[in-house]
């Protein structure tokens, strides 16, 4: 429906405009009946609909309507499947329409900086490229159904400890290269209806009143068209927030901040034009839902449950397999661990879904008539196991052909609101796994966790299947994968270090209560482990299959590239095994001539391809100059230096199969100013000054030669000279001559830059 929002705003009183900038209650926006402005409901996501009735809260403490619980982001990101992510978004969009919910609060795209973050189960990856692609697909899916999304938490919200007041101290380069690209990709490619600002400060400024973040970057630079909503209770100074670009405060403040806005306009502290612009952005989104309302949409819980199980089947990651998997029907199998009967399928907090349709692996096995015996072993809720329970587990394991131990983190170990203090599983679980592995060679461990765990028994067991928090269909998905009805196709979206101490943020997490230093800078996740050559348990991108894949015939559309070009990279992938399955082809870029610290390689492309036995397909991906760039703080922009780059294609970040070299040339020049502190090395390596410096050096060299003839010993090597600033030569070159040299060199730089 076409309507003139500016005209509508002119009809509103100051009080009405100010009121629209706060929620009517915990989940609803304000409506103005006399002007036909509806109230709109939003609910928490991202992996299901948490529509609360009656008393409302934001931490999942009070009950919500029954809904379908889909796999959490820790699982879905591991699918490396953008089509699957978009399909899940579409289903969630339909569910929102059926429940008359206008906005789903998700996706959560914060980077997994530390494995300890209590909310990692809701975040996607340690890698910004993968996160951006998956988030965009989710947003497109949900919004294709006329439902808005609220991408969160903007920005650098990477811990739960002190999240309400902590200041994330991060460099401009790390901010741009690691923590913003996923948001940028989603805004530019999917245009979420809203973006949710985070609680924390960024370099001392609250996100909720950070103009650089909410206006300069988000709107002016990226072209965001929707409105910015606060995380629940994240507003600090409401008027400052409005000026910075924070549009909607949630939940409402019982009129307190509304009155502040009114007074600020009346006394001239806040321009009414800013308020009008804010109201227009809110109305645009509110009416976009009203105009696309589909009241006839049906919430088919049975159909959506099946979809949830199908999606989880594509997300699970086979971490290890020495031959125990897939299981065979004729085997005598024992399931150990209460997670087999009571699986952990979602995380705690604001995204907690109320569902009564959870199906366990044990229940699925019974339904299918499998020869499976169940022994409790340990509790799924506490670090608790009796000696008698351990004895029963060992006795059952000794007489079985294969044992499947369902392990994982209890609900209390990871949740929104607090961070973990350790990467360990409950001690009773580690003990049982180690003891059973001593008496049974075919031990399979199935993991239920929202983020990496230490696995000291990994070499002792036969197979490990990572299910993550797989939603209400986790038991059905586990059964299909264990018995080979489906082939594992997931890949790790995060690195599993051997120990907590190995992770790059270890010394700087979670800060001192007021600030947290992002001391690892751009070296997050595999970027750090690669650069430091730190061995890891399982690398980013890792995941096994019941079949094998070969790579061949890698081709580049050109071996040379410049600004504005698009490079096409293709490779043939063949299923050389005996079972149909999916391979995730991963493309990484490596700067071989870098003059600044850079990651050894960075993910810049991926494609999931399904292949039948013996089938071969050609996978093609495209790269642009930005894919080779780093963020250059001298120009506050992305910069791709001229030089040699290597395109790497592989099965995982530590399993590269094919490589090819590329020569890149740019016409962009970085600013370069010469002064007394500029070193000889800088001058000799810079294309604008190198030639002139050669002339100067010849003169200096002749002088040095004459000294040698007089018996002088050469003590200064070329390496030492390269480190010397111009002021170091004042003892051998007149200062006036150096000053003249600086003038000439800066003149050359200026001429080249025109």
From TrEMBL:
It comes from the Bacteria. Residues 583-653 form the Fibronectin type III-like domain. The keyword Hydrolase applies. Transmembrane segments: none annotated. Belongs to the glycosyl hydrolase 3 family. GO terms for molecular function: hydrolase activity. This is Glycoside hydrolase family 3 C-terminal domain-containing protein. Coiled coil: none annotated. Gene3D superfamilies: Glycoside hydrolase family 3 C-terminal domain, Glycoside hydrolase, family 3, N-terminal domain, Immunoglobulins. It holds the Pfam family Fn3-like. It comes from Blautia acetigignens. Keywords: Hydrolase. SUPFAM superfamilies: (Trans)glycosidases, Beta-D-glucan exohydrolase, C-terminal domain.
């Amino acid at each position: 429906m076409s309507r003139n929002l500016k005209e509508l705003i002119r009809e509103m009183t100051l009080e009405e405009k100010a009121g629209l900038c706060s929620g009517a209650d915990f989940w609803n926006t304000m409506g103005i009946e006399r002007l036909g402005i509806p109230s709109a409901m939003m609910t928490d996501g991202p992996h299901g609909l948490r529509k609360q009735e009656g008393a409302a809260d934001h931490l999942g403490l009070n009950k919500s309507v029954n809904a379908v619980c889909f796999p959490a982001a820790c699982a879905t990101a591991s699918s490396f499947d953008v089509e699957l992510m978009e399909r899940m978004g579409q289903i969630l969009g339909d569910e929102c329409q059926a429940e008359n919910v206008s906005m789903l609060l998700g996706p959560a795209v914060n980077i997994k900086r530390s494995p300890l973050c209590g909310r990692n189960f809701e975040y996607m990856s340690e890698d910004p490229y993968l996160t951006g692609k998956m988030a965009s697909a989710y947003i497109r899916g949900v919004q294709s159904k006329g439902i808005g999304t609220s991408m969160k938490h903007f920005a650098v919200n990477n811990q739960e400890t002190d999240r309400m007041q902590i200041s994330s101290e991060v460099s401009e380069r790390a901010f741009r290269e690691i923590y913003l690209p996923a948001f940028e990709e989603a805004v530019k490619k999917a245009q979420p209806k809203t973006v949710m600002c985070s609680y924390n400060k960024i370099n001392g400024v609250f996100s909720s009143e950070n103009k650089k973040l909410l206006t300069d970057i988000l709107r002016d630079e990226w072209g965001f068209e929707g409105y910015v909503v606060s995380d629940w209770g994240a507003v600090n100074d409401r008027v400052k927030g409005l000026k910075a670009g924070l549009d909607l405060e949630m939940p409402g403040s019982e009129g307190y901040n509304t009155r502040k806005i009114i007074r600020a306009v009346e006394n001239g502290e806040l321009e009414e034009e800013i308020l009008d612009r804010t109201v227009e952005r809110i109305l645009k989104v509110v009416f976009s839902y009203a105009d696309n309302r589909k009241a006839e949409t049906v919430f088919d819980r049975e159909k959506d449950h099946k979809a949830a199980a199908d999606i989880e089947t594509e997300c699970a990651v086979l971490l290890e397999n020495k031959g125990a998997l897939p299981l065979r029907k004729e085997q005598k199998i024992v399931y150990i661990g209460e997670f087999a009967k009571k699986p952990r399928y979602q995380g705690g907090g604001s995204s907690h879904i109320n569902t009564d349709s959870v199906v366990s692996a044990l229940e699925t096995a019974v339904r299918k008539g499998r020869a499976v015996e169940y022994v409790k072993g340990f509790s799924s809720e506490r670090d608790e196991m009796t000696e008698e329970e351990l004895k029963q587990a060992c006795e059952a394991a000794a007489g079985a052909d294969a044992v499947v131990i369902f392990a994982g983190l209890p609900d209390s170990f990871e949740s929104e609101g607090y961070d973990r203090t350790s990467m360990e599983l409950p001690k009773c679980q580690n003990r049982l796994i180690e003891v059973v592995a001593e008496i049974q060679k075919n031990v399979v461990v199935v993991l239920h966790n929202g983020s990496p765990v230490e696995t000291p028994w990994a070499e002792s067991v036969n197979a490990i299947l990572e299910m993550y928090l797989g939603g209400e269909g986790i038991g059905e998905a586990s059964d299909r994968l264990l018995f080979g009805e489906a082939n594992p196709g997931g890949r790790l979206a995060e690195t599993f270090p051997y120990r907590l101490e190995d992770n790059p943020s270890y010394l700087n997490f979670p800060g001192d209560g007021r600030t947290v230093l992002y001391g690892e800078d751009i070296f997050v996740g595999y970027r750090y482990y690669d650069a430091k050559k730190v061995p890891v348990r399982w690398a980013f991108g890792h995941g096994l299959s019941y079949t094998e894949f070969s790579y061949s015939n890698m081709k580049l559309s050109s071996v040379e590239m410049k600004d504005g070009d698009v490079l096409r990279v293709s490779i043939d992938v063949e299923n050389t095994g005996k079972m149909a399955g999916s391979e995730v082809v991963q493309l990484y870029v490596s700067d071989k001539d870098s003059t600044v610290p850079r990651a050894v390689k960075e993910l810049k492309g991926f494609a999931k391809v399904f292949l039948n036995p013996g089938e071969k397909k050609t996978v093609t991906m495209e790269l642009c100059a930005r894919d080779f760039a780093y963020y250059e703080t001298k120009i506050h922009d992305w910069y791709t230096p001229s030089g040699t780059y290597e395109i790497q294609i592989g099965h995982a970040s530590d399993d590269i199969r094919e490589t090819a070299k590329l020569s890149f040339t740019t016409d962009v020049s970085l600013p370069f100013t010469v002064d007394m502190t500029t070193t000889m090395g800088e001058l000799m390596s810079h294309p604008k000054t190198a030639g002139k410096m050669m002339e100067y050096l010849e003169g200096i060299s002749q002088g040095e030669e004459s000294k040698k003839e007089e018996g002088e010993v050469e003590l200064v090597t070329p390496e030492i000279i390269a480190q010397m600033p111009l002021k170091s030569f004042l003892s051998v070159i007149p200062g006036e001559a150096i000053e003249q040299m600086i003038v000439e060199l800066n003149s050359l730089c200026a001429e080249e830059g025109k």
